[in-house]
Specification:
Layout (H helix, E strand, L loop, with lengths): L5 E5 L4 H12 L3 E8 L12 H15 L2 E6 L1 H17 L6 H20 L4 E3 L4 E6 L2 E6 L16 H4 L2 E2 L7 H10 L21 H6 L7 E4 L5 E5 L33 E7 L4 E6 L7 E12 L9 E5 L7 E7 L4 E10 L6 E6 L2 E8 L9
Parallel strand pairs: 1-2, 1-4, 2-3, 4-7, 8-11
Antiparallel strand pairs: 5-6, 6-17, 8-9, 10-11, 12-15, 12-17, 13-14, 13-16, 14-15, 16-17
Helix pairs in contact: 1-2, 1-6, 3-4
């Protein structure tokens, strides 16, 4: 490039963002790395230390031969992501903070900072792609089906996508690791991070305990029988199987959709009566929803898709489920060809037309067959 385009890469300390920075430098861009610190309440603890990640990111920058800057977005994160995360849990819903973090921090606060540094583009290590067609930008799935992260990026808009590069979106993860090893990156074999950055690997309930008060109440089965006590509805999510404390309880009579030896699952949370409803058997009717309602919509193209027949994911790592789309003034209704399992309020319903991610919204309805 005669005049090198400046690209600011979000270096997390992981291998995906490291290889992204390397690929961009190879392509002739002027690359600057930025490490984002988004959480600092107990950052020196055993579960969630960004210091180790920064050391890894700095080591990567040194090998690649680029500058790296440490930027603190903890205040923005707490205001825009964590506060909303707690509000949703207190209301009995199950939010996805990664989606909010991408929309509010990585592609807003970080993008703004990069532009102040004179960048023309930003880049991250997400497994997704951007395609420009007829002057508009499309968000596409990453080519590695096992790593595609378009679900978490569905709230990005045209302005954000026009400034974004996803260098590893065309590659399988195995190739990313091969490149990292070939060029001698110190984090070539680093384990992929899991979970939410402010929780890390710690037990989720222990973390939530610090911010949300426990309000115990009854656990009931479909017959209305009380079979246990929950610690507080905020600490459970639909479809949850572990940690219910009722493993030895048997179903009463021949329960539809299960038998006395099958595990229990959370099917509904009644916030008004502080009651947790559970059912036995993975495919119990109360866990299956033929339709859902979603609001707080965000469309990649800036407007709702015109197609009626599309596909949707109601959770990450789920196959695209064919459905019909109906839009109205306040939200959308999706009706599925096959009932969906444990549709969870607070999670996102993300719509697809083949490899194109159209956008989506936040699920507001529970499983259709749960008790009134």
């Amino acid at each position: 490039m005669a005049n090198k385009q400046r690209v600011v890469v979000g270096l997390s300390g992981g291998v995906d963002s490291a290889v992204s920075a390397h690929l961009l430098k190879e392509q002739g861009y002027e690359v600057i790395g930025i490490f984002m610190k988004n959480w600092e309440d107990d950052d020196n603890g055993e579960y969630c230390s960004s210091n180790i990640d920064f050391v890894d990111a700095a080591a990567v920058a040194d090998v690649i031969g680029i500058e790296i800057e440490h930027v603190n977005f903890a205040a923005e994160y707490k205001d825009r992501v964590f506060a909303e995360f707690l509000r949703e849990y207190q209301a009995g819903r199950t939010p996805n903070p990664d989606i909010l973090c991408n929309a509010e921090i990585k592609f807003k606060a970080f993008l703004d900072h990069a532009m102040r540094l004179g960048a023309e583009k930003i880049a991250t290590g997400h497994y997704a792609r951007v395609r420009e067609r007829n002057g508009a930008f499309e968000l596409l799935k990453g080519l590695d089906p096992l790593k595609d992260q378009s679900y978490f990026l569905h709230r990005l808009n045209q302005a954000q996508l026009s400034k974004t590069l996803f260098p590893v979106g065309e590659l399988p993860k195995t190739e990313v690791r091969r490149i990292a090893a070939e060029i001698g990156l110190p984090n070539a074999k680093k384990k992929d991070s899991t979970g939410i950055c402010f929780i890390g690997e710690r037990p989720f309930r222990d973390f939530l305990n610090r911010y949300i008060a426990k309000e115990p109440g009854p656990i009931k089965d479909p017959t209305g029988r009380t079979i246990g006590q929950h610690v507080g509805l905020s600490f459970y999510t639909l479809g949850q199987r572990q940690g219910l404390g009722i493993g030895g309880v048997k179903a009463k009579g021949a329960q539809k959709g299960g038998n006395e030896h099958e595990p229990w699952f959370v099917a509904r949370k009644d916030m008004d009566k502080n009651t947790l409803w559970v059912v036995q058997g993975h495919d119990h009717p109360w866990l299956l929803s033929p339709s859902l309602r979603a609001e707080d919509l965000s469309w990649v193209a800036g407007e709702a898709p015109s197609a009626v027949q599309i596909a949707a994911k109601t959770r990450y790592r789920q196959a695209d489920a064919p459905c019909t789309l109906q839009t109205d003034a306040t939200g959308i209704t999706l009706r599925f060809a096959e009932p969906q399992w444990a549709v969870t309020p607070g999670q996102s319903a993300v719509l697809y037309d083949g490899e194109v991610c159209l956008g989506g919204g936040v699920i507001t309805t529970e499983a259709a067959n749960a008790p009134a």
